[in-house]
Design a protein that fits this description.
Radius of gyration: 20 Å
Number of helices: 3
Pfam families: Transport_MerF
Order of helices and strands: HHH
Keywords: Membrane, Transmembrane, Transmembrane helix
Strand content: under 5%
Oligomer: single chain
Protein name: Mercury resistance system transport protein MerF
Structural class: mainly alpha
Distance between the termini: 37 Å
Length: about 80
């Protein structure tokens, strides 16, 4: 994967996980389909997903910085 794809994937995943953690949208959706008993376990799933997505985003930004540094280094002249 290139760094732009990693950054987009990490950012979208982190935003989706954060929205699910911060708003009751997921609770309403689970209640509507009859799975409201699972709401007590959402933190065990959503918080690790949020951490994983932030990790992917960080890795993508790190790779972008490494690629930018590699492009800008002057080439050494051979004698």
């Amino acid at each position: 994967m290139n760094d732009a794809t990693l950054i987009k994937t990490g950012a979208i995943g982190a935003v989706v996980a954060a929205i699910c953690c911060a708003t009751p949208v997921l609770l309403i959706a689970l209640g509507a389909v009859g799975l409201s008993a699972l709401t007590g376990y959402l933190d065990y799933v959503l918080l690790p997903i949020l951490a994983l997505c932030i990790g992917v985003l960080s890795y993508g930004l790190y790779k972008r910085g490494q690629n930018a540094a590699a492009c800008c280094e002057p080439h050494s002249k051979s004698k």
